[in-house]
UniProtKB/TrEMBL annotation:
It comes from Candidatus Dojkabacteria bacterium. Pfam families: Guanylate_kin. Coiled coil: none annotated. This is Guanylate kinase-like domain-containing protein. It comes from the Bacteria. Residues 1-196 form the Guanylate kinase-like domain. InterPro entries: GK/Ca_channel_bsu, Guanylate_kin-like_dom, P-loop_NTPase. SUPFAM superfamilies: P-loop containing nucleoside triphosphate hydrolases.
Amino acid sequence: MSNFAISGTSGVGKSYLEQILKNDYGFYPVPKYTTRDLRESEVGSKDIFSVSVEEFDTLASSDFFFTLDYHNNKYGWKNSDLDMHASKHATIGITIDSVRKLLDLGISFVPVLLTVSEDRIGLLESRIKIRERFEDLTEEERVEAQLRIVERLDLARNEMAKIESLVPRIRKAGGEVFEIMDDTTLQQEVIPWILDMCRNKEN
């Protein structure tokens, strides 16, 4: 089976792509374990679990095949989860800063990187607002949410600046980089490329 590490700028649609691959094509998004509190939309999900720092460190020494730090929180993925679904193509969603670590470790996940150009930064803002449920917030809550959104967009711009140096390594590892123009880019370019990679591996 082919496994894919989905990376990209903040808000670009990594989790959304994982869900499409799961729901429409039977891929297995390997659950992630994190030390941060779950968002309201994540509570009850089978794709992400919140654990204490102590639990995380125990898993990191015994079962995680990959870990990363992001915004002062830790994230990890289990070997045992991957092994239980070895008959399916698997995905993990990771940060841009973690792509180098993945490649350095030689972990057998094909890197797929999603990015946007500066003139498409509004696409990221609209997606982050949806995640924040911005339209349902009170005026006071919107002020706080807008601060978080600005922070996420600044982070995305910083991540975008790092992509150019990553492109050669991603392609050398058999991966690809996609500039997301709108939601159709996933359906017309990214997903067909991933499915072709899976078919080529099987042949």
